[in-house]
Amino acid sequence: MRAFPVRLPSGARYWTVLDTDLAVVPAADAFLRHVRFGRGGAESTTRSYAYSIVLFLRWCERTGRTWTEGAGHLGSFMTWLRHAGPQASGDGAGGAAVLAGPGTAPARSAGRVNGVLTAVRGMAVHAAAAGQAPGDLVPLLYEVADARDLPAEARGDGRMSWRLRARHRLHEPETRVDRASDEEIVALLTACLSARDRLIVLLMARAGLRCGELCGLRRSDVHLLADSRPLGCEVARAHLHVTRREDNPNGAWAKSRRQRAVPLDFLVVQALDTYELERAGIPRAGGSDFLLVNLFRGPVGAPMRPGAVGDLITAASVRAGLGRRLTPHMLRHSCGSNLLDAGGSLDEAQDILGHMHPSSTQVYLHPDPARLREAVDRVPSPRVMP
After folding, report:
1. For a FRET experiment, which of 17, 143, 266, 305 has its CA 20 to 30 Å from that of 352?
2. Residue at 170 is within a domain
3. Same domain flag for 119 and 190
4. Structural domain tally of the chain?
5. Residues 251, 362 share a domain
6. 237 among known catalytic residues
């Protein structure tokens, strides 16, 4: 079993699953095509789902089950997934292996296991709806539960309501987001070798852009006028538009289907001005409408790839002498945390970051330990009794 990328004649891409004979697995392929083209999901989402389904089908094959039979035994699959490391669950592993079970250090985190189960359930439900699997699979995957444990935003008018809840799910311990500190961002900016690189850091740390959104920006998406109505835009002051496009030659992809306008502060505007001066000094870089292009390596003027942004941030972290290597998403986490720490509301941060659900933004609500100390210190002490 293996995950495999597919490029259609139109240029659209998605990932599918091949069996041991290199034939497409029909149920998996139909589900992944639905995710990509029916729901408008990202290519990276189908890639993640494809690798998750491969693990499930590999387990089914090695335990002598069809995938529909395996879907009825997800508890056993969870145990295997939790404790079977790459040597046991990889493509070249043998069919029989003795595994250390519960009580030993897990091979995969609870979040990773839950992510795999999400893909498997999605495939099973889609196959049942399409007539590729029996309908009695669905009750084996979901149970009816009330909505009391959902966030307030998802409970509607507050009355008791019911929903389908996944039967198989590991508890994920609540952890703080791994964000870049303000000191680390300053050190990163100091270690950048060009105005373009400093702009990249600020667009992620101050505007909260993802790598795919960043590399997909066109120059026409950036509006720096106080009044952009002459451009046909009703958004006031400096901002940029994040838009999903299918035809980006660098593979950049905006995760959110909804176009959004992101306000820009004076630090980002200054960085944009400095970058434009730097870019103007390289004639071959002037013809592209992409905002971020290669300036110092070939092909000069070509749009930057999302992977190059990660390499850039890693290299700058090493030059800055930081105790760890920062990632682009840690800069985005810093933006979300700073927005809420500065008094921004949850819906404001949600819109700026492009989250579909409020629960995705709630992870930034954990206050900094220093703020917790300040909150305690603000409580007046009781008067001394005479």
Report:
1. 305
2. no
3. no
4. 2
5. yes
6. no
Q: Say whether 355 is catalytic.
A: yes
Q: Is 364 a known active-site residue?
A: yes
142 is catalytic: no
Catalytic residue among 255, 260, 284, 366: 255
Active-site annotation holder among 36, 179, 210, 305: 210
Same-domain status, 190 and 327: yes
| Closest to 83 measured CA to CA, from 64, 109, 47, 114 | 109
In terms of domains, do 217 and 308 share one?
A: yes
Q: Give the residue numbers spanning the domain of 112.
A: 2-147
How many Å apart are CA 40 and CA 253, to the nearest integer? 11
Q: Where are the alpha helices (DSSP H) in the chain?
A: 26-33, 43-62, 67-71, 74-83, 86-89, 110-129, 138-141, 182-191, 195-205, 211-215, 266-280, 306-319, 328-341, 346-353, 358-361, 369-377
Q: Please tell me whether residues 213 and 105 are part of one structural domain.
A: no
Selection from 78, 293, 286 nearest residue 167 by Cα: 78
Residue type, 155: R
Q: Is residue 381 part of a domain?
A: no
d(CA 97, CA 74): 19
Tens-digit pLDDT string for the chain (386 aa): 899 999 888 878 899 999 988 999 999 999 999 999 888 888 888 999 999 999 999 999 888 899 999 988 888 888 888 887 766 666 655 555 555 556 667 888 888 899 999 999 999 999 999 888 888 888 888 886 655 555 555 555 555 555 677 888 888 777 777 888 889 999 999 999 999 999 999 999 999 898 888 999 998 889 988 888 888 888 889 899 988 887 788 888 787 778 889 999 999 999 999 999 999 888 888 888 899 999 888 788 889 898 889 999 999 999 999 888 888 989 988 888 888 888 888 888 888 888 877 777 777 777 667 777 888 888 887 765 45
User: Active site residue: 47, 168, 284, 329, which one?
Assistant: 329
| Neighbour-count burial of 148, counting CB atoms closer than 10 A to its CB (0-12 exposed, 13-18 middle, 19+ buried) | exposed
Asked whether residue 177 is assigned to any structural domain, the reply reads no
